[in-house]
């Protein structure tokens, strides 16, 4: 791409050696890609005026991709979710190697070894399988696709988010596409989070299982479709976006309340609800930080590279997703022991 398309405005205070790219222009002169201030951005890149500088603006695609390895105000946004993606990739590999088949229940119970309740139950089931309801362990086949669907949803969300932060600065069209993929990823994470919860809680009640799964899936698709409207990504719609996602997440309260009414006497139900409460807390705090744009609102320009709200939001999303992973292990252990 021609060097003339580059933004050449100089930012005031960054270290040149760490933030510039070099490109050999057709006329053999060397051009520099520099980071710019908020005021120099085109409208489609103006999302947060409290982040003052270190912006990439309309860089060629090659330099945009290579900027994953350089310092700018999106570097930590990219890497927080890219590292999160690799964490979930490892968790998926770990889980599939520990319990590769649907009938291989015991290793899963070992996986829950932090929960002595499961260890006790597993030992009793193995030593005297006919002495308790755990007799259904033998021959019971509990589908694991809801668990893996959740892992896939989490990885899709984290990868789309990371790609969105890396590539959106390239051009308006790329930004438009990536922002929608980012929304679709967040919707996918929220919807897939409810699959282990609903499927394993209501394994023995297909009516409510299918009703809740259909509802949350419908709500997720509706959110993605609404987010396709062009007006949706303008800054003044930031609270609307956040509220929409929060409502979708809140719709999960109904099956959780139902779970506690039906199984509130069971330790698995209480433990998984605890995980879900912690997960919800991470997500709610993340959304509040995202909307409030703190701490950069208090000290504009001081958190451009590290510590601004979106980075905190990303870390909270990874923490919430990991909490739900732990809860999903408990659900799986519950159904592996109990069957239906
Ligand atoms: Zn993000």
UniProtKB/TrEMBL annotation:
Keyword Hydrolase: no
GO cellular component, one term: membrane
Keywords, sorted A to Z: Membrane, Metal-binding, Transmembrane, Transmembrane helix, Zinc
GO BP terms: response to hormone; response to sucrose
Entry keyword Membrane: yes
Membrane topology type: Multi-pass membrane protein
Segments passing through the bilayer: 78-99, 147-167, 179-199, 211-232, 239-257, 269-292, 312-334
Protein residues bound to Zn(2+): 165, 310, 314
Localization terms from the record: Membrane
GO molecular function, one term: metal ion binding
Name the record gives this protein: Heptahelical transmembrane protein 4-like
